[in-house]
Amino acid sequence: MVLTATPKRQNTNMKFTYSPDAKPVDGFTIRRGLHRGGFGEVYYAVSDAGKEVALKLLTHDLDTELRGIRQCLNLKHPNLVTIFDVRTDADGDTWVVMEYVSGASLEDVLAAFPMGLPLDEVRDWMAGILAGTEYLHSRGIVHRDLKPANIYRENGVVKIGDVGLSKQMGGTRRQHTEAVGTVYYMAPEVAKGQYGPEVDVYSLGVMLYEMLSGRLPFDGETTAEILMKHLASAPELAAVPAFLQAVISRALEKDPAKRIHTARQLATELEHAFQTEPLPESAFEPPPIPVVPASMNGSATPAEKRSS
After folding, report:
1. CA-to-CA distance for 200 and 100, rounded, in angstroms?
2. Residue 170 half-sphere exposure, CB side, CA atoms within 13 Å?
3. For labelling, which of 58, 100, 148, 196 has a CA lying 20 to 30 Å from the CA of 181?
4. For residue 138, is pLDDT > 50?
């Protein structure tokens, strides 16, 4: 059974820089706004030939975003959102031309199933996320911002998006740089500016926990409280199935040297765990979700709590 959820939209009072039918990028016409985030605005657009694309207008931390995007321009994998090009408009603003994914995000699905997803759904989502992340790691790239709002599924294919924070790993496979990412999914060592493939494994462990339980392993009222829990608190493993507790515990190790090191290793351990436990038949039914007409200039949003 494949669970579905209709992508949510913010209230239509959220204004975008460009309105429908605008043509800021030569060869493309904007149809509607999709999302506004920390690094810019994303629009649904079509080319003059009719190809659907997502156009991302970069508005903040341009150097950081472009650095991540340019190192991913020529990556090709079915579980990654494809980046086609980077353009500059007449005003000197920078745009990223990307694959448009019409399916719901993992965050939409989690919001529709607050008690957690059926095990077969968890397995399906994780297989796609792990395959895409493994591909990035094999190319020496750490995503650094894996979270449900950046994961989509369209026609049964899981895709990882928002590679703007990704970073090329050096020869040591770990580097020190500024702290970036989303606090709920941030590995403890990120607070020290340390990055390696293990930071993605930690984020994957948080998402796996959330998919299974419907809640975050480390939560709090303030950013400081959440960061402190990442640094010092153990996850409540009783909230997840017993046969997956050991894998999640190793994925959420505080010390990256003791953590599962790569997405490939996590995929292997997770699949082994699933093979030891028969998957029960799911009895979940998708609840109805209100839909705002696509013609309105709304915005597909992550849940307020996890938005960055």
Report:
1. 24
2. 7
3. 100
4. yes
Alpha carbon distance 119, 126 (integer Å): 10
Kind of pairing, strands 194-195 and 157-160? unpaired
Report whether 254 contacts 188 (CB < 8 A): yes
Whole-number Å distance between alpha carbons of 121 and 153: 11
Indicate the SS3 state at residue 58. Answer: strand
| Total Cβ atoms within 10 A of residue 79 | 19
CA pair distance 218, 187, nearest whole angstrom: 11
| C-beta separation of 161 from 150 below 8 A | yes
| Contacts of residue 43, Cβ cutoff 8 Å, sequence gap at least 6 | 16, 18, 30, 31, 32, 33, 34, 54, 55, 56, 57
- Helix intervals (H) in 151-215: 197-213
Sign of the Cα torsion 201, 204, 209, 210 reads positive
Domains of the chain: 28-100 (3.30.200.20), 106-275 (1.10.510.10)
Alpha helices in 159-297 (DSSP H): 197-213, 223-232, 242-251, 263-275
Q: Is 181 left (phi over 0), alpha (psi -120 to 50) or beta?
A: left
pTM attached to this predicted model: 0.80
The residues assigned a catalytic role are 154
Express each pLDDT in 12-58 by its tens digit: 446 899 999 999 999 999 999 998 876 789 999 999 999 999 999 98
> What does the DSSP assignment read for 76-119?
--TTBPPEEEEEE-TTS-EEEEEE---SPBHHHHHHH-TT---H
